[in-house]
Amino acid sequence: MTRRDLIGTWRLLSIQLVGPNGKTVDPFFGPDPTGLLIYDPSGWMSVQIVERQRPTTDAPVSFVSRGTPGETSQDAQVKASVLDTYYAYFGTWHYEAATSSVVHDVKSSLIPGESGKSYSQTASLVGGHLVFSRRAVDGAIQEKVWERATFPER
Questions:
Q1: What pTM does this model have?
Q2: pLDDT of res. 148
């Protein structure tokens, strides 16, 4: 695999934890996430992962108050459900051929504490799928499987 093989847009197929009891759902992302991963040739990247069955709200989140007087507990619940079902960050990326690793250097994230961090994942191309694996906190292996995105039909 080369850096050039990674450039483009990838669509998420699955995220699972692989442990002693086989494959299980990653509790952070839920049972059926969807998402896009974009690697630009200039070195920029972006990833967005979302639960497919997100709660709906009548008002766009941008219209929900930001902790100002008048914010209701329902507003806070809407914001929490939006945050709990969406994950995104952008930054720069590079491929380390010696270790078959892709490194994401996070510039900004939906989770503020991630800004400035670097994430390294082992990468492989298997049957046209991009497979990332990394050791999770509990010792299991987190496996993300992506496929090359095609232009959507209209």
A1: 0.83
A2: 96
